[in-house]
Amino acid sequence: MQVKTGDQYFFGGYSFPLNDIQPIPSQRSFQGCMQLLHVDEQLVDLHAVEQGKVGSFSNVNIDMCAIIDRCLPNHCEHGGRCTQTWDSFKCNCERTGYSGATCHNSIYEQSCEAYKHLGRTSDTYWIDPDGSGPLAPFKVYCNMTGNITMILHHGQAA
Ligand SMILES: [Ca+2]
């Protein structure tokens, strides 16, 4: 197989002339860091590019890698899993018992009384006595008849 290349190379993205009738591709340009670029086994002199002697560039910082780890420190609370893009981070709060952008808000009520106020009947519920505080939620049996009692299941209290 023979591959013939053109006389122009695009790294990380490409631009179209203003009057080009071709649709602009939906693919976003590269975000990240590259080093030691070679074309035809020749190291590209990025300083010559920077000085305008060769090619052109835009939205590029030469001699610096601006990658920021947006998950270090991890802003997700209560064991939420952090994922990141070039611009932002996201928390996956699945199975943490908390919700919100940083898994801050407890999804459980703080007491059996709170469940009773919601009209719930005697049953087993997850409660989080300190709400968004560090204490993990746990399961209790709430007896809603008469005086509300909370029965901890053996071995389940945090
Ligand atoms: Ca808590």
Automatic annotation (TrEMBL):
Pfam families documented for this protein: EGF (PF00008)
Cross-referenced InterPro entries: ConA-like_dom_sf (IPR013320), EGF (IPR000742), EGF-like_Ca-bd_dom (IPR001881), Fibrinogen-like_C (IPR036056), Fibrinogen_a/b/g_C_dom (IPR002181), Laminin_G (IPR001791), Neurexin-related_CASP (IPR050372)
SUPFAM superfamilies, per the entry: Concanavalin A-like lectins/glucanases, EGF/Laminin, Fibrinogen C-terminal domain-like
Taxonomy, superkingdom: Eukaryota
Positions of the Fibrinogen C-terminal domain: 103-158
Location of the Laminin G domain: 1-65
A GO CC annotation given for this chain: membrane
Keyword terms: Disulfide bond, EGF-like domain, Membrane, Transmembrane, Transmembrane helix
Compartment list: Membrane
GO molecular function term, any single one: calcium ion binding
Annotated ranges, domain EGF-like: 67-104
SMART domains per the UniProt record, alphabetical: EGF_CA
Main location: membrane
Name the record gives this protein: Contactin-associated protein-like 2
Organism of this sequence: Callorhinchus milii
